[in-house]
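*** Protein under study ***
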Amino acid sequence: MKTPPPAAQPAAPVAGAPINTLAIVSLVLSLVGLGTFVTAIAGVITGYVALGQIERTGQGGRSLARAGIVIGYIVSALGLALIVLGLAGVLFYYRYAT
């Protein structure tokens, strides 16, 4: 009777570069900006700071920082458009409704 081969050992987890904290903060602030519009600007700023840190230190999170920047710009543009449309509506109302 043959002895069975030893069971395969699970692979050891590969430790990648640590993720930059500001990259995560950038994405979170930009996503929270969907409801507040104010934090989206902070998401853009922290995204650029995170990209600079990632470039210097070699940390991970470049795609998170870029996503925070893009989403922050989009949300900021939508917020600005809503403010402009709201002001135009108010001006239109006061000009023609009275």
Remarks:
- The chain has three helices and no strands.
- Residues 21-96 form one domain.
